[in-house]
């Protein structure tokens, strides 16, 4: 009996010791040396799922998966801001970058204007090289939330100055208009209101710069070395939509993909011979979803996935030292996979989307306005437009209902030509009737539906792989993502007391309050 009791005690002690050692090894696991933080702007779970179904058809492989959907750790993430349950990209980016809620429109600041330390800044302070890449403007809301501090995301000229002061090793994307001086020697169009030449100031700080459309091939050919820093705003505003990029015949200085920016960023950061933190934003997913462009949304989601694939290739060389997290700041458009007016609509027809050859936002938006000038006669103009959307958006063999919708949209847009802007009928961010008619008809043919031209409060999906990635799993808030990442990396974010979002009690406050009081359906008349 005594020996048995002794054996039991020994076994209990052994189990306890083993548990303590396991806990200790987990608690004191080495921080990841290389951290990739991918953010799909507007990329909800539906966007990821639609892109994966599309990819299976595209590859004719039912087993095919998006790279981001193959990671072993997953989570669902809430995205409300401090003042409303539907965040904008400023507040959403701030939460993912700092671990704090803020008011819609603010960038890395608390609602009272206090600056917040971003994960990128904290990483840089801790000795990490830092890179930011985006398919939007470098000064746009998401990259700005990691590298600037401002109460208004619209102050991009000011945030470009903030970015100059970070010392980050790599900036790439679009938006040279916020960096180049007025009346610059290169003749590049500027939006700066002051006399500063930020390109010259970046160069003075040791940056190699690639500015404008004509610098793209030089950027591609560039071979970084230790100590190099890079600023590469490669377009006046945002980079092009992926569907337009892959269908472009442009060869010299062609529009770069977000995967190319990622590859070059890895080269620059790896050349520093020290740990690095790299945030990559697939920003045009959001722009496509805002105007309910199903095909554009899917192609830009696939473009981000190609960038994730570049990071995964790096991970496979450094599996014990690398962490990859793929997240989103919010969902856009209320994208739903399924639409039916009867009880028979248990199907999707995603093959319809393969007929589309251009984006709604960047290409179609300009087609009908140009035709107003080219075809003064209404009948000729309408015929030309129907021919165009048949060729580039697959809208052939129109049903009477579809033709009526297109004819109605063109008639309204014809009428808009003679009305002041305030009296014109448009949708969302000034989307024209012809844009939206085509977007919705293409979506309906694929049996995809939309609820909004703005963001929604739908949870987003997160996935992760690598060093301590298990800590990112579960059902969590966007603020927890940044805090978990800081904990894993061993870096310090701001330590202010966290207060619950005011919106969680059911009230919309701040800049969105006045709009919340307008009855649904009357917004466009106010």
Q: What percentage of residues falls in helices of 4 or more residues?
A: 40-55%
How many runs of DSSP E, i.e. beta strands? 14
Low-confidence segments, given as residue ranges, are 1-6, 12-27
Gap between N and C termini, in Å? 86 Å
The secondary structure category is alpha/beta
Q: What would a concise description of this structure say?
A:
The protein has 526 residues and is of the alpha/beta class. It is 41% helix and 13% strand. The strands form three sheets. It has a ten-stranded mixed β-sheet, with helices on both faces.
How would you describe what is shown here?
This protein is of the alpha/beta class and 526 residues long. It is 41% helix and 13% strand. β5, α8 and β6 form a beta-alpha-beta unit. The radius of gyration is 25 Å and the shape is globular. The N terminus is likely disordered.
Topology (elements, then pairings):
Elements: H1 2-27, E1 34-40, H2 45-59, E2 73-78, H3 89-98, H4 119-125, E3 129-137, H5 141-147, H6 156-164, E4 170-174, H7 198-204, E5 207-209, H8 216-221, E6 229-233, H9 242-246, H10 258-270, E7 276-282, H11 284-290, H12 294-317, E8 322-328, E9 331-332, E10 336-337, H13 360-374, H14 378-393, H15 400-416, H16 433-446, E11 448-449, E12 455-456, E13 460-466, E14 474-477, H17 478-489, H18 513-516
Parallel strand pairs: 1-7, 1-8, 2-14, 3-4, 3-7, 4-6, 5-6
Antiparallel strand pairs: 2-13, 8-13, 9-12, 10-11
Helix pairs in contact: 2-12, 3-5, 3-17, 10-12, 11-12, 13-14, 13-16, 15-16
